[in-house]
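call fold target=FUSC family protein
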Amino acid sequence: MKARQIQREKSSFLERTGIVWKTTLGSVIAWEAARLLGSKHPYLAPLTLILCIQTTIGQSLRFSLYRCVGTVIGVLLIGFFAKGIPVTAWALGIALFISTSLMKLLRMNDTIIHQVALSILFVLYFESHSAGYAWDRARDTLIGSLVAVVFVTVFFPTNETRKSEQSMRRFVQDFAQVVDQTGQAVHDNDFQFLNVTLKQRLIDLFNQLQKMNQSLTQAKQSLRFNLYAAPSATERVSQQMNVLQQAYIRFTSLAETLTTDFTKEQRDKWSQSLRSIAVDLRDWPNHSQTVSAPKTTPNVQLPHLFNEEAATYELQRLMEYLRGNVSVNRPRAKSD
């Protein structure tokens, strides 16, 4: 058990500090590889590596590809003519206009066009000061990109699923706090909170949900590039996020009934039920195997209970309601 805990702590430490090791060790290896292969400008390899290390594995791989393609094209377009072209603003402008227009006609990605333009700028200037710069730039870019790909996929891959899980846990705690505060507001008959503050809190939670979904999408996209990722873990987090989304939708629908004038007995029941849900929510992340949505409060007529397929559409409708763009007929709570 202790050995397993040490292993987890070690893995967590490497994940938190991965950017340090990828940048440092990768730069050293890229520089030495370029130098051993005869480059007179070995700094170009670690420069490429640093640029290629992005937030996610997918982003790193895409940028590495675009960087290589754009640099090689730029070098081929200008390398043969660089020494015969005067280094002036007009010469640079004409070279950039012709090359970028050609790339646009060929429907190249904007990032590739950006890299083509950079290569033309640097080759045009440095080739006249340092012979062989153009070919060193092409070769060292390939070296730096290759080293970057190895580091982000083999040695220090980013665990996107764990990031999604962390954002989910933060959402759960914030959600539980809102539910608990709502229970207190119902108990105190605090209509200011129920009519104004709660609305803003629900908008904040909705924005968190959107970011969680974006993070999970990145995690799913990175699965095919991550040699160590467990698809089952990503699927588990996806299911948990879906439950939280459903819980948010149901609570938002539930919140529509809370502006009703309750009797003291009803307020006490509502407050107790809401606080019970808040407790369940705070404990919910600990149930990693069994996922279940919070139960709805008894004696409440909900407007809708939404299924998984309708969740995304209903979230958009709820957001319109929260922003005041949709008029919703609020059902009243049943009397005891």
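return ok
The CA atoms of residues 97 and 153 lie 37 Å apart. DSSP finds twelve helices and no strands in the chain.
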